[in-house]
Amino acid sequence: MIDPRAGVRYARALFGLADERDQLDKIEKDLEETARLTARHPEIANLLGNTTISREEKEDFIGKILPSGSSSLLVNFIKVLVRKKRFRDLSLIQERFHRLYEEKKGLQKVRVESAVALTGALEEKLRRALEKKLDLKVTLENSINPALLGGLVLDFDGTRIDGSYRTALEGLKQTLLNPRK
Question: Which of 4, 88, 99, 164 could form an SS bridge with 148, CB 3.0 to 4.6 Å?
């Protein structure tokens, strides 16, 4: 079972060691690749969780599945996860590590949902406005949802700003159907 608190502790520990050793960028990249690989192949977690396979065989397997040139820090970290039976927490650890990485680097990913595709100029204007408001370097992830009718929905760091026409029309509908006396 995945334990969010343990995942956060492991992510912070790895982040602290990577920062101390000036390996944040490398660990960020390799950890993301490893998490993506294990998400695509759930049998890896099953194999590493199998109690009939020796620890030595599992550690040998880890060396083979990690991206070539992976940091010894990451290799040893993954081995610790396997020994402590926490390998299933890897995706959570990677997500939390990524958030710590973005905070350290002053980065913010913003998901933008719009009814139609944003033009390059509009996307750049939105990115600059968000960077000014948030005082962070912003990267945008765009998605199209025609059901919004128009406007934008922004999601970042647990915050949702819904400026869609659909939501505005729903609010107007509620006001018209339930007038205050």
Answer: 164
pLDDT at 65 > cutoff 90? no
Q: Which of 17, 9, 134 minimizes the C-alpha distance to 72? A: 17
Name the pTM for this structure. 0.70
- Reported as a single tens digit per residue, the pLDDT across 132-152 is 998 889 989 999 999 988 999
Beta strands 151-156; 107-114: pairing state: antiparallel
Q: Which amino acid is at 96?
A: R
Rg (CA), the chain: 22
What's the CATH fold of domain 4-103? Peroxidase; domain 1 (1.10.520)
Instruction: Judge if 4-103 and 106-177 fold alike in CATH terms.
Output: no
Contact criterion met (CB below 8 Å) for 137 and 131: yes
Measured in whole angstroms, how far is the alpha carbon of residue 14 from the centre of its chain? 16
